[in-house]
């Protein structure tokens, strides 16, 4: 407690709530409001409509929802496998090589997404691997950008794992693969789910690399939202943003309900 | 003597490498490091085979590059400063003056990190845009014909959006660092007559310093790399390095110029990332709030 007097405390609370409301409540509130407003010429919209949601859930926009969900699931699943693999392989290494390789796996998160997209365009626009204009290049871009976050989450989980469980399993004669499957992986499951959730959310909102590489047949929601707002259809853009936020939340809430045998400590 | 002998460094018996690391490393090399190397090659050779720094020289001499580099650095530094001030104030409010709903708000800020950054830029056009809520309210109140508030389509609009989006990245380590402060320390200081501002400056700020430096360097990296907000604000004279790369490659099909700018941008980002890693290693991850 920093403020002891009653009025002082009430004033601080009011100040804090106002600050949070203006900074974080208001932006989300206006997007929600814009997504249901028919016309907005005054301070508040003059009438409400669900038309923008109808637009967002049919035709191109519905297609973009599918594309984003697929991209998010596939890229996150691949990133989860490779990130977990990397974190497990790095675990028994000596301190110095471990730290060096750790940086190598983290670097993709430090490079601007537009440059990741540009690199893929330059690398895969010529034979032998001609991927420019395919769906695969979008998936690769998303995988590269989220891989560091997946790796980071899993290796943080492994670092917190008490070593005794695995030592006990080993002393009881469990083979390495059995130990991995029955002891280590179940214990880090909460971190695997957290890693998948974070990378899925990041993939759903990814814009920088996607605008560089996407083919006309594989348009993700953020690209679609930008196209709408660029065209001046800002209410449709707001509705599609709401669809993006809500569908991401549904997936994340669903993931958080997966039962695990270990709870994070 | 025995004491000293025990402290001698023991040789690390763990292996330096193992072959299991190869598959994920190869994937990353093929999909990330190889494309990155090709960016450097294209920047140095253009579409031919001769190595030259001619393209670098011409890009470095161009005004649009200077403009973009200047914009990127100004916006990143200002936004980071804003995030640090705002993040510190908000974290102190959450951690040390617990008000009803402060936990829910801390949670909400955590989920805010997962939202796409352009959401805020889009929301700001509805709030602060020329036909937005603020301008319409002021026009109605003051009987004006023209929108009085006009900052959104400038550097200020980008900075304000970035401050909103990246403040949670400062708050997370700060809140973790604050949880390590012994509450009794503050109570004793207060009972000895220290006023809140003095407690903040003499106890809370020193304890928060590692987290502030770590969060600040992370913010600097993220704001230098930011693309969505700048694209959505769409102000003609606010071009940053990532936007210039997009413009050159996608709008003008000038890959070589795009690659030269990308080399600069990536070098800048990796330098900032090294700074971040150095800061975290220097303070130790626990004190930097990255427990």
Please sum up the structure shown.
With 265 residues, chain A is mostly helical. Helices cover 74% and strands 2% of the residues of chain A. In chain A, strand 1 and strand 2 form a beta hairpin.
Low-confidence stretches of chain A: none
Low-pLDDT ranges of chain B:
1-8
Mean pLDDT of chain B: 87
Count every helix of chain A, treating DSSP H or I runs of 4 or more residues as helices: 11
Q: How does this model look, in words?
A:
The complex is a heterodimer of chains A (265) and B (291). Chain A is mostly helical and 265 residues long. Chain A has helices spanning 6-35, 51-56, 59-90, 95-106, 113-123, 135-160, 163-171, 176-205, 208-213, 221-231, 234-256; strands at residues 37-39, 47-48. A two-stranded antiparallel ribbon of chain A has the order 1-2. In chain A, helix 7 (163-171) runs antiparallel to helix 8 (176-205) and helix 10 (221-231) runs antiparallel to helix 11. The two termini of chain B are 36 Å apart. Chain B has helices at 2-7, 22-45, 54-61, 63-96, 102-112, 118-128, 133-142, 155-178, 183-191, 196-225, 228-233, 241-251, 255-283.
């Amino acid at each position: 407690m920093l403020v002891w007097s009653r009025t002082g405390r009430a004033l601080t609370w009011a100040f804090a709530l106002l600050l949070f409301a203006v900074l974080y409540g208001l932006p989300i509130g206006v997007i929600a409001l814009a997504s249901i407003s028919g016309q907005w010429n005054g301070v508040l919209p003059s009438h409400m409509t669900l038309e923008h949601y109808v637009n967002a859930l049919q035709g191109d926009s519905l297609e973009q929802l599918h594309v984003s969900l697929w991209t998010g699931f596939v890229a996150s699943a691949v990133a989860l496998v490779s990130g977990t693999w990397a974190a497990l392989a790095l675990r028994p290494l000596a301190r110095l090589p471990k730290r060096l390789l750790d940086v190598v796996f983290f670097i993709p998160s430090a490079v601007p997404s537009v440059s990741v997209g540009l690199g893929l365009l330059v690398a895969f626009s010529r034979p032998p691997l001609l991927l420019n204009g395919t769906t695969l290049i979008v998936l690769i871009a998303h995988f590269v950008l989220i891989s560091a976050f997946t790796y980071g989450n899993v290796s943080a989980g492994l670092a917190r794992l008490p070593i005794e469980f695995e030592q006990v399993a080993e002393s009881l004669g469990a083979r390495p693969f059995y130990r991995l499957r029955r002891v280590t992986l179940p214990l880090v499951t909460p971190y695997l789910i957290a890693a998948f959730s974070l990378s899925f959310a990041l993939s759903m909102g990814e814009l920088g690399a996607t605008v560089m590489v996407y083919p006309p047949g594989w348009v993700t929601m953020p690209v679609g939202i930008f196209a709408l707002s660029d065209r001046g259809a800002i209410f449709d853009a707001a509705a599609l943003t709401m669809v993006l936020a809500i569908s991401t939340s549904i997936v994340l809430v669903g993931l958080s309900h997966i039962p695990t045998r270990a709870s994070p400590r | 003597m025995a004491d000293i002998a025990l402290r001698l460094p023991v040789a690390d018996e763990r292996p330096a490498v193992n072959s299991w690391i190869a598959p994920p490393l190869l994937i990353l090399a093929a999909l990330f490091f190889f494309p990155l190397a090709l960016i450097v090659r294209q920047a140095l050779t253009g579409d031919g085979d001769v190595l030259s720094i001619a393209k670098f020289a011409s890009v470095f001499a161009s005004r649009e590059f200077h403009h973009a580099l200047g914009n990127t650095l100004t916006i990143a530094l200002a936004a980071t400063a804003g995030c640090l001030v705002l993040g510190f104030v908000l974290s102190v409010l959450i951690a040390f003056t617990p008000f009803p709903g402060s936990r829910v708000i801390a949670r909400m800020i955590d989920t805010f990190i997962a939202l796409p950054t352009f959401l805020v830029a889009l929301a700001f056009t509805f709030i602060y845009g020329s036909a937005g809520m603020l301008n319409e309210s002021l026009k109605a109140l003051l009987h004006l014909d023209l929108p009085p508030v006009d900052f959104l389509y400038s550097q200020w609009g980008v900075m304000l959006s970035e401050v909103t989006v990246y403040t949670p990245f400062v708050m997370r380590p700060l809140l973790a660092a604050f949880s390590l402060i012994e509450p009794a320390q503050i109570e004793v200081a207060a009972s000895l007559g220290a006023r809140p501002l003095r407690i903040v400056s003499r106890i809370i700020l020193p304890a928060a310093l590692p987290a502030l430096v770590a969060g600040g360097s992370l913010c600097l990296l993220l704001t230098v790399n930011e693309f969505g907000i700048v694209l959505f604000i769409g102000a003609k004279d606010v071009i940053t390095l990532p936007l210039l790369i997009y413009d050159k490659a996608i709008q003008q099909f000038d890959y070589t110029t795009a690659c030269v700018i990308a080399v600069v941008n990536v070098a800048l980002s990796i330098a900032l990332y090294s700074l971040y890693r150095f800061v975290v290693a220097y303070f130790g991850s626990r004190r930097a709030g990255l427990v």
